[in-house]
Amino acid sequence: MAMEIKEPRIGVFVCHCGVNIGGFVDVPDVAEYAKTLPNVVHAENNLYTCADDGLTAIKNAIKEKNLTRVIVASCTPRTHAPLFMRICEEAGLNKYLFTFVNIREHCSWVHMKEQEKATAKSKDLIKMGVARAVLLEPQEEVKIDVRPSSLVIGGGIAGMTAALNLANQGFETHLIEKEPELGGFLRKLSTLYQTQESSAKAYEGLIKKVEANDKIQLYKNTTLKSLTGYIGKYDAVLNVNGEDKEIGVGTIIVATGADEYRPKGLYGLGEHDNIITLTDFEKMVKEDKVPADLKSVAFITCSGARGQDKEYCSRICCTVTVKNAMKVMEMASKGGDAEAKVEEASVDEKAVSDKEEEKAEEPEEEEGESRRRSRRDRRGRRGGRRRGAERGEERPKERGAAVDVTVFNRGITTYGIEQELLYNKSREQRVKFVRFVPENPPKVSMEDGKLTVSYYHETLKADRKMNPDLIILATPLTQRPDAQELSKMLKVPLGRDEFFLEAHVKLRPVDFATDGIFLCGTAHGPANITEAVAQAYGAASRASIPMSLGYVQAEAIVSYVDRERCSGCKSCEVVCPYGAIQFDEEGLAEVIVAACKGCGTCGSICPEKAITMTHYTDEQLTAEALAALEEVGT
């Protein structure tokens, strides 16, 4: 939307942002200063410029003061620039005639102990913004066609859910899975802690729906070999059973899942057959290969996580540990039914005998004080038994508790109501939880031919030992080994923990910074089934928007190549992180507007100075710099 502008008429809106800015900067003084700057015809301060009253003030000022430029001095443009640009458009002003001045992150937060200097710096930043705003020009955004088809990478529960959601909306969907079967990591599990049902019930129905859906093109034993293009026009080459197949899609969803971390040698893993991981145990349960003669089982949580090997908490390990601890108790209880019945009978007989004895001892006219004394004695005996157990004295076995289950932990993280109830239930079933600190974890060794766990009991303040028949390590989920290669191919980032990194944890949790590519499931980080499915629906929803519209509107902040200066050296193509530079038949560079993100890397490396940025031209940036240097006499 272009417009002719004869004279720059600038409006400046300075935000208090509560105490974030107003607590360290004299905002009214800054607003008054802005009125003295060249071409500024209106300036005001607002408590929260992003609130309804602040946005209304901007719209009204544009119309009443005939503003041709708008400056908002507040917080980060990363979160709020689109909002203010939309408000300018609603008021009839081209949104590229708006500029942001960050006086929170760039000023008040870093100078909170120097309030006078922070106020002076805020004035300087606004002066620089005004100098640039004078040179702003209206820009037009280009519409780009989007193919109504999508590529989903990964055939686990998240990938299948996303593919089905897109297919049910009528979009052609290509679902690729590198394994021979769909189902992903869920195939390795025996039961689900939410329902205690077989994990197969969670994925078998999905697989049938995927295979029966005409809109889903399913490829097993398939990997992504190469990818070119941009949102709306991605060209992919698939490696299907060793043969190449080319497809064209408009959007992509990454649902590659995660692997279990197997730290060889940690706590003796890989050195002894009876030291296994949670997934190993799930497989044993699923195949009915759990030894029937288990008398003692130890779980060790955070094995390789939370600073041991990996820095992060894997979130779901504690709940899975609790579930499997209860599974051990359940299997032992079933295995000892006959013994339990005998014990139950003897307990019942003893209970009847005790009652008869108590009744016989009571006088016909028992005094109230005597009754109270008798109750106190019984409570004392029960308390004595509890104290004896705390001192390590052997407690009589509970009915059905034919195995001793101990969970060594650094603190159980069972987030959510269902998980917390599961934890409470495990304690009721006599699962023991022994806490340790990172500086003094349990030690696993072989002593006299027996597997031994030596540990310090934080509650009892004593060194203890146990000889478990089986040790189960709760290890974290970790990124798949091919993630680095895939991230480079898709031009999407991995985070510090090596999982795929979203564009914004709150504002764009299932988007990548690269438009048209979305994320869900454990490829993003450790998650339970409910969370993975929710993310899959979110990713499918986001991917469906441009495909439903049939086009995307690319931002006008892109690189521009002066063909008369370009020498065709291809330096820009090498450094472009988005693959937005291509070369025509004459060997000259041209920009793919849909793929360009306006980062300016190409312009900074061009030896011929043939590349400039729209909305951030050399003239505009130079004007800002000169405004900053005016008062120092430069």
CATH superfamily of the largest domain: FAD/NAD(P)-binding domain
Number of DSSP E strands: 28
Overall geometry: globular
The spatial strand order of the largest sheet comes to: 8-7-6-12-23
**Highest-level CATH class of the largest domain:** Alpha Beta
The helix-and-strand class reads alpha/beta
Largest sheet: 5 strands, parallel
CATH architecture designation of the largest domain: 3-Layer(bba) Sandwich
Given the structure, what is the number of helices? 18
Note the gap between the termini.
Answer: 38 Å
- Assembly level: single chain
Strand content: 15-25%
Overall structural domain count? 4
Task: Please estimate the helix content.
Answer: 25-40%
- Low-pLDDT stretches: 336-368, 387-400
Q: What is Rg?
A: 33 Å
CATH names the topology of the largest domain as: FAD/NAD(P)-binding domain
Mean pLDDT metric = 88
Name its key features:
634 residues; alpha/beta; Rossmann fold; FAD/NAD(P)-binding domain; five-stranded parallel sheet; 18 helices
Give a brief outline of the structure.
With 634 residues, the chain is an alpha/beta fold.
Describe it.
Helices cover 36% and strands 21% of the residues. The chain is globular and about 90 Å long. The chain has 4 domains: 10-139, Rossmann fold (3-Layer(aba) Sandwich); 149-258 and 479-553, FAD/NAD(P)-binding domain; 266-342 and 399-473, FAD/NAD(P)-binding domain (3-Layer(bba) Sandwich), CATH 3.50.50; 558-614, 2-Layer Sandwich (Alpha-Beta Plaits), CATH 3.30.70.20. Helix 7 links the parallel strand 6 (149-153) and strand 7 (172-177). The chain is of the alpha/beta class. It starts with 9 loop residues before the first strand and ends in a 5-residue tail after the last helix. The chain contains 18 helices and 28 strands. The strands form 9 sheets. A 5-stranded parallel β-sheet has the order 8-7-6-12-23, with helices on one face. The protein has a 5-stranded parallel β-sheet with strand order 14-21-15-16-17.
